[in-house]
Structures are given as C-alpha cells and as structure tokens.
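Weekly structure sync - notes
Attendees: PM, LS, DV (DV joined late)
Agenda: review two folding runs queued last week.

Item 1: First target. Sequence and structure tokens pasted below for the record.
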Amino acid sequence: MRVVVTGGTGRAGQWVVRELAGAGHDIVNVDLAPRPDLKLPGEFCRVDLTDAGRVYDALFQYRPDGICHLAANPAPSGQAQIDVFDNNVLSAYNLMQAAGDVGVSRVVYASSEMATGLLTDGTVPAQIPFDESERHPSPNA
C-alpha cells in the first residue's frame, strides 16, 4: 500500500514512517523540510499543507492508498496562537478535502492536545480521552 505520511520528519512522524516501511508499505513523507540525517525510508515531497493547490498536486502525483496525517505546529510557544490554529486547521482541511477528491479511502488523523487549548492554560481534563463535553469556563465568565 502506498501511504503518505504528513509530518514524516517530525518527532512522531519519523517513527510512523519507519514502522510503515518496515511493514512493507511504500512511503511518501510529505513535510516542509527534509532531514537527511534521519535516513528515513521512502520518498520525500516538500509540501506546504496550507496551500490547497500544492496539497492536491502532491496527492494527484503520488495517488496514495492511505494517508497518515501528523503534520502540525505542536505547540504555540514562540509564535502567535492564531498562527498555530490557522496552520493546523487549514492543513487538516486541505488534506482531507484533497484526499476525498483524489479518492483516498483511508485517512488516519492524529491531533495533539494542543488542538483543544486546554493544556495551554494549565487546565487538565477530568478524563482522557476527552470529548467536546469537556469545557473550561471562559475567562470572561
């Protein structure tokens, strides 16, 4: 099976790339920067996932059977939180929209706890995994 792994050079992605390749899958690592020092198996394709045209181009080029979406800004430190939000949401949207249009039948999406914003303010959920019922009060409440 040909699998696109977004964020394949990241902290989690590099291990997923190795595991999938070790299981016999043909891997395409889609990320912003190659890491030759990691010596990862498979092909590398530089793609800015916030650019829908580039996402479509890459998926039409490689025609994957599956996608493992791990690319994201994992934490807001050192940058505006809205930039982290914009990158993560737009990347996921572009990838999933293009995957559907290209006919990719399997998408695995991993999100970090940073997507909720809970841990950025020191709040810990009552249970893990948690869902949309886990809310913390607005600072203006």
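Item 2: Second target, run right after the first with the same settings.
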Amino acid sequence: MAQTYTDSLTNLAGVLEHVSNQTGEVVKLLTMITVITTPLMIVGTWYGMNFHNMPELTWRFGYELAIVITVLSTVATYWWFKKKRWF
C-alpha cells in the first residue's frame, strides 16, 4: 500500500512539473508579445495626448520620423528575441 502511495505521489509530482513548464512557456510568450508591442504603444499614447507645442508637429517629416523610429524599435526588439532564441 505504501508503494502505491509513493507511485501516485511520484506521478502527481511529474504532472505538476509538466503543468508548471507549460505555464512558464505561456508567460514567456505573453512577455514577448508585450515587449515587442511596447514601442508601438508608447508612440501611440504620445501622439494621443494632443499637445499643441510638440516640435515634431511643425517638422516636415515629423510623423514619418515617428513611424520609422517605431518600426525600427519594434524590429530591433523582435531581432533581439530571435538572437536570444526565444522564438
């Protein structure tokens, strides 16, 4: 009977370890999504504040520069994750 309980507890520990590993992978994926989309959210919230004295509003290529910076920072973040082999 003690051997049966020991086997049951060993199996239960294996199942809990598997569930813990799956949870870690889900958290890792959600973290990557959050970090990759953060530059997009920062620029979106910055331009959503409706300031009147934003210097880039009077620049000829102000919005284009914001788009380029946003895309470059997003691509750089994605590349960094690829380099670290998180994908």
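Discussion on item 2: The helical segments are 2-47, 55-58, 62-83.
Action: LS to circulate a short write-up before next sync.
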